[in-house]
Specification:
single chain, 116 residues, four-stranded antiparallel beta sheet
């Protein structure tokens, strides 16, 4: 006799199905990780965009919304030893977003020297 019996094919199929079912949680975890990575990349890109706008003089203070993310730029005095007061400004770029039941926040800081 050549080939496989029906019983051998059924057992092999059963083992293969069990293996595939075991991979489903790993696939779901991978999808969640990819989604989380995209979210953090979007946050970093938006934060860097706002810092670049501050550097270019386009953005001072303000707030707004881009997609699922809200942003806020807050300017405050920053002092450093050896520099006259008011020479430096600190810009805090705050990005907020809803992640399931939690509100997340990430802060980017840029210190700019004012031209005298």
């Amino acid at each position: 006799m050549n080939g496989f019996s029906l019983l051998e094919v059924l057992i092999a199929s059963f083992i293969m199905v069990i293996g595939v079912i075991g991979l489903i949680p790993a696939f779901n975890a991978g999808m969640r990780s990819a989604s989380r990575a995209k979210m953090w990349t979007d946050v970093a890109v938006l934060g860097q965009k706002k810092v670049e706008e501050i550097k270019a003089g386009v953005q001072e203070e303000g707030h707004g919304k881009e997609g699922p993310y809200s942003w806020q730029v807050v300017k405050e005095d920053y002092s450093a030893p050896g520099l006259p007061k008011g020479t430096l400004k600190q810009y805090n770029v705050i990005i907020r977003w809803q992640d399931k039941a939690h509100i997340r926040e990430e802060k980017f800081v840029y210190i700019k020297r004012l031209v005298e």
